[in-house]
Structure formats: structure tokens, C-alpha cells
Fold this sequence. Notes:
Oligomer: heterodimer
CATH architecture of the largest domain in chain B: Orthogonal Bundle
CATH class of the largest domain in chain B: Mainly Alpha
Strand content of chain A: 15-25%
GO molecular function (chain A): ATP binding; ATP hydrolysis activity
Number of strands of chain A: 9
Largest sheet of chain A: 6 strands, mixed
Family (chain A): Belongs to the ABC transporter superfamily.
Number of helices of chain A: 8
InterPro entries (chain A): AAA+_ATPase, ABC_transporter-like_ATP-bd, ABC_transporter-like_CS, ABC_transporter_ATP-bind, P-loop_NTPase
Protein name (chain A): Putative hydroxymethylpyrimidine transport system ATP-binding protein
Keywords (chain A): ATP-binding, Nucleotide-binding, Transport
Amino acid sequence: MSAPTSIALRGSYRIADEMLFDGVALTMPAGEWSCLLGRSGVGKSTILRLILGLETAGQFEGTIAAGDGKPIGGRASYMAQSDLLLPWLSLRENVVLGVRLRGERPDFDKADAMIAQVGLTDDHAKKPGALSGGMRQRAALARTLMEDCPIVLLDEPFSALDAGTRADMQDLAARVLAGRTVLLVTHDPAEACRLGHHVNVLSATGIAHWPVPESAPIRGVDDPELLHTQASLLSHLRGAA
Amino acid sequence: MTRGWYPLGAGLLGLGLWQAVVWITGAPHFILPDPWRVAKVGFENRALIAEHTLITATEVALGLLIGSLLGALTAIQLAASPRLARLTLPMLVFTQAVPVFALAPILTVWLGYGMASKIAMAVLIIYFPVTSAFHDGLTRVPPALLDLAETMGASPSQIMRRIRIPHALPSLASGLKLAAVYAPIGAVIGEWVGSSKGLGYLMLLANGRAKVDLMFASLIALAVLTVVLHKAVSLLAQRLTEFSRFA
Lengths: 241, 247
């Protein structure tokens, strides 16, 4: 993996003539987790798509740049709420999908190491249909790790999991993605406060930085300061239109 | 009764109804022969029927193979180039508005009385269903999957090969199942319009000589051919579907 870099996004976004957000300034410091929260439809996923260089419905005016001045494309990997595993491929073949799609020869030793990191070694030959939801999301995480990108963009990757599995996945993701520049789009204030070095709340008028507990992530689920922070963040989100 | 017996039961029921109609109406055998007579005539003419069945089966199989290949390749091409698809799809739909039956005479003029014109008929009749079904599948890949592939730096041809085609195999399977039923229709129409071989020819010949029993026997041979073909293609289709869903 190349050295992590910071990313800064500044600008406004409109769909047709309607402004979705304006005056947004989001900075993702290098090698740390930045979380992005906000009401549904406020444009969280749009920001993630813009950074990834994916097609969006409207127009963005502004700048998106990496701190080291190099392009972001090719250095960012993506993980979505749905695991997006191909049902006809084994877990191991799914993990090397990116390599295959670039027409390169897969390094299966490396793939097996990634599969071991997410604890699925015994299941590497199984098809996704034979895995539970949590295992599938771990497989998707192994596929993300295989890409070995310094920038990782996560779009609510844990939101479909049950509470226990979600907490396990958060621990796992925090461990294996440490040292990368991560943007986590999430609906869950508890998740943001557990994982984020930085928590940002997006609204139509811009981004507010929410103070996080002083302890370093990943924070214990029973950390009193965490519980206090997530409660006040939730109140804020309920108040924000 | 286990499931395997149902088709046999259905067949016996059909034969019983047929026999009942013959008894009730008292139709003479040159109008409506009874099942037993058809079976007897069919057995006596087994070599003749087998010879013509083989011809029709060859036409249908080649038509199915060529038509499916052409249809699948067209679908991939159209899916790879949406602009081409926007231009070509209306044209394809328009050609479907021309009844294939109406093209049979001209195909016979162009390709002669041999197998080629019948194969062409079968190809024409199945080309559109295969193209349309497969194209639908190729263009209905979940967008998030394509986004993921894009962030991985995939080329369009790799996305086609590794994601879109495998994902669309169940759709191709539906198209092929339709094609298996349509292809014999195309071949037989071709034979009616002009030929000296095949089940369609034999049926016309028998009909013209008031050998309705032989015509029925040929018709049954054609039906059996279609059912066997449909069954074979269904098995293949099931394999294709299972591949991309669970396998």
C-alpha cells in the first residue's frame, strides 16, 4: 500500500435547478477514519460517489483533491451496504475480483492472507449463498483489503447486520483498515462515535464537525464518554432538518 | 401417484378423449382416424417417418444453434454499445412486425428447396426472442455492482465477460426455452412452402392423398420432436440458471 493521503472536498451540488448542498467543506485527514452523518437524502452517498469519481445525477461545482496532489482514482476502494459478492464465484474468487477485472493474474497467497484476516479461511471455497450475512460482509471486507488502497470509502457497510455482528464487524474493520484514509458514511451515531477520529454532520447548508471522545478509536461500546457523545449527536440529528 | 406418472396419465387421458370423440361423432377414418389406427399406420411407416423426422430435426437443431449464437452475439453487442442499441432495437422490433410466415416463400426463392431455407426460417423465428431476453439480462445488472467494478479499474470488456454475461445467463435461458418451441414451427413452415423432405412435407403429402392417419402420425412425430427438444433445452437452461444464482 502506498502512503495514505488526506482528501479535501469543497463545493456545492445541485440536481437540475435544486441545490442539494452548498458550501460544503469536508476534510479527511490522512490515515484516519472520518465519519459522515446526516438525514436521508442530504447527499452523503453523493459525496462518496463524487470522491470515487462515479456518475451522479446532478452537477458538482468545486474541488476534490488529495493532499499529495496525485489523482484519487485507482487509489480508492469502495464497500457498500450490500456485499456485492458474485453468487457464481467462490469466496476466494470473489476476493480476487478486482485483479481479474483488471485483466491481471491473481496472487492467491495474498488473497488467502486477506481471507485469514477476516477469519474466513475455512470457508474460502464456499459460494456466497452458503455464507451468513455477517460472513458475506467480512468477505466483502477481504475483497476491499485485497485492493490494498490507501483510501477506503465505506457506504453504510454494516447497517444491514444485527447489532452483535455489527459491533464485531466494526472492531474488525477498524483493525484491518488502520492506517488508511477512511470515509464512513453512516446513519448510526453510535457507529460514527465508536469508529471516527472525526465526525462530520452534513446538512443542506454545509458540514458541522462534531466533537468526538478524547479516547482513540475504536472505542468500547460501554465507554461512558462515547455513550454521552452519541446521545447528544442523536439529539442533534433529530433536530437538524 | 408419484410425479413421474403424471405425464403418462395426461397422455392416456388425451388418447381417451380422442377415442371418445371418434366414437361419439362416428367420424370415418379418412376424416378423424382413431388412435389405434394412427399407431398402426405410424408403425407401418416408421422408416418413412423416421427419415423425414431426421431431416426436420437437423433443420431445427441447426436453426436453434445458429439462431441462438447470432441472438446471443447481437445481445452482447447491443449491451456493449447503448447507442447502437438505441438505433438497432426499434429496427429489430419492426422486423418482428413482419410475419415470418410471409418471408417463407422469398427465402425458398433465395435459398432453394433444400435445408438452407428451413434453417433460415428457424433462425429468423428464434433470433428476436433470444436477443431480446439476453439483452434484458445484460442491461439489468445491479448498478452498485457496476460501480464497484468501475472503482476497481475494470475495462468494459472485462465487466462484460466477468459480470454482465454470467449475471444474464438466466435471461438467456428463458430466451432459449422459447426458442426451442419456436424453432420447429419455423422449419415446418419452410417445409410447407417448398420442399421434398421433412415432416412438414410429409404432412402435406399425406393430407393431399387423404391419408389423414399418416398425417396424424407425422404430427405426433413432430410433437414428440418438439417436446424432446424443449426438455433438452430446459435442462441446459436450468444449468445456466443455477450457475449464476447459486452454483
